[in-house]
Amino acid sequence: MKKRKHTTPAPAARPGASRSVRTAAPPATAGPRLIEPAPGRGGRLSAVWIVVTVASLCLGGVYLIRSAGHFDARVYHPYRSVEELAILQPKAVADELHTVGRRLYHTLCVQCHQPRGQGNPATFTPPLAGSEWVLAPDPGRLIRILYKGLYGPITVNGQSYGQAAMFAVGDQLPGNDDAKAKQIAGVLTYIRSAWGNQAAPVSVDQVNAAHAQFKDRTTPWTEAELQAIPETDPE
Ligand code: HEC
Fold first, then answer.
1. CB of 161 within 8 A of CB of 94?
2. What whole-number distance in Å separates Cα of residue 101 and Cα of residue 107?
3. pLDDT tens for the 235 residues of the chain, in order
4. Which is the closest atom of ligand 1 to the Cα of 124?
5. How many angstroms separate the alpha carbon of residue 126 from the centre of ligand 1?
6. Residue 234 alpha carbon to ligand 1 centre in Å
7. Virtual torsion, Cα 215, 221, 225, 230, nearest 10 deg
C-alpha cells in the first residue's frame, strides 16, 4: 500500500516523466476498449453461424423432401435403390437355377455324360464339356433335346455319335409344366457354365417360349431336324 501511494505521484513529480504517464494511460484505457468490441464481433459471428445452421437445416429438409420417394422400405444397406436391386435380381435367379440344375445333373445325367461332362465312348454318349450344342448362343435346340430326346447320328466336338439315343428328359421330370421348365432352365444353365463351359444362363422364360413351339411333338429329334430350326437371337 505504501509503495503504490509512493509510485503514483512520483511520475507527476518529475516533469520528464509526465509524458510517459500520458502515453502510458491510453493503452490502459484502450485495453478494455479493445476487448469490448470482441463481444460485438462475436455477436456478428453468432449471427453468421445461425444463418449457416438454418440454411443447412433448410437444405437438409429440402433434400429429405425431394428424395422422399427414394427411401424405399424394401431397400436395405448395402443397396441404394429398387433399380439396383432389379439389376442384381437376374443373377440371384440364375444362381438359384444353377443350384437346381447341378442337383438334377448329378441325379439324372451323370451316369451317361459323366461327372465332368466328358461323355462316355463305351455307351456312345457324347461330351457336354466343350460341346458346340451346349455352347450355342441360342439355347433353342438344347431346350428341344431336353424335352423330347435325340436319336440318330450327331457330331459333337468333331466326333460322330449315334449308336445310342437320348431319352426325353421332360417326360421324366416331376411336377407341373412350370416345375419342369424351371428344372430344364436349371440343368441347361448348369451344363453351360460347368467344366470350363462359358455360355449364358438359360431363363425359365426362354424355356417356356421355345417349348410353346413344339409342345405337342411326341417323337425325339434328329440332328438334321435340329439344324433346320433357325437360331433366334438369344434374349
Ligand atoms: C441314358 C443315357 C443318357 C442320359 C441319362 C442323358 N443323356 Fe444326354 N445324350 C445321351 C446320348 C446317347 C446322346 C447322343 C444321342 C445321339 O447319338 O443321337 C446324348 C446327347 C445329349 C446332348 C446333345 C449332344 C451333346 O453332347 O452336346 C445334350 C445337350 C445332352 N445329351 C444333355 C443331357 C442332359 C442335360 C441330361 C440330363 C438331364 C442328359 N443328357 C441325360 C445319353 C444320355
1. no
2. 10
3. 444 444 444 444 444 444 444 544 455 555 555 555 555 566 677 787 788 788 888 687 666 666 655 667 777 777 787 777 767 777 788 899 999 999 999 999 999 999 999 999 999 999 999 999 999 999 999 999 999 999 999 999 999 999 999 999 998 899 999 999 999 999 999 999 999 999 999 999 999 999 999 999 999 999 999 999 988 755 5
4. 12
5. 7
6. 22
7. 50
